[in-house]
Amino acid sequence: MSKLYIKKIQNKKRVKGFTITELLIGIAIVGILTAIAGPSLGQFIVQSRVDNEISELHRLILSARNSAINSGRNVTLCPLSGTSCSTNWQNELSVFINSDNTLANNNTFVSANEELIKVKGNISTGDTLQFSQNIIVFAPTGRLVAGGNGNFSYCPQDNNDLSRGVEISLSGRVYATSDTDNDGKDENRNGTEVSCN
């Protein structure tokens, strides 16, 4: 091989890569950008988690209502503890079709003759999910049978300003809360801010 060819190969090798100075400047720029964007990114992640939970809860309620209409039977949504409904809404939520349309058995799931439709997992550890009623039961008409109007409130840990909610009217309609007064906090349909106090 000629010496000229070897020099060209060596020159190409030197062109590739970074000098230590360029690398340190690049690391410094990335560090500065991370320091600036970090708090906003953390809030964005929490907001995304809250939005996902509210969307999933909204779909679960609509699924329960539609199942009641389609099956012609009462459908219950509640946090099951064994085979009975509990009041700890932060746990796994279950939707099941009741074997009969009496209110007496709507808070108990009997796997032998009742159908489990859908299950939503626990909420994130440290977050809070509250509901103003003990149980949600939809009639075949799509209306609520038990409990009346109800409000879900989802509050992320250490970020109460990002709290959101879902409301269920007696007619069975479902509404997600929104920021109606542009203060950065969601309000219920009656104008009160969503909170878990």
From TrEMBL:
Keywords: Cell inner membrane, Cell membrane, Membrane, Methylation, Transmembrane, Transmembrane helix
Domain General secretion pathway GspH residue range list: 55-172
One GO biological process term: protein secretion by the type II secretion system
Residue span of region Disordered: 176-197
Coiled coil start-end: none
The UniProt record lists the keyword Acetylation: no
The keyword Transmembrane is annotated on this UniProt entry: yes
Membrane topology term: Single-pass membrane protein
Entry's localization field: Cell inner membrane
SUPFAM superfamilies registered for this protein in UniProt: Pili subunits (SSF54523)
Cellular component per GO, a single term: type II protein secretion system complex
Membrane-spanning residues: 20-41
NCBIfam families per the UniProt record, alphabetical: IV_pilin_GFxxxE
Protein name: Type II secretion system protein H
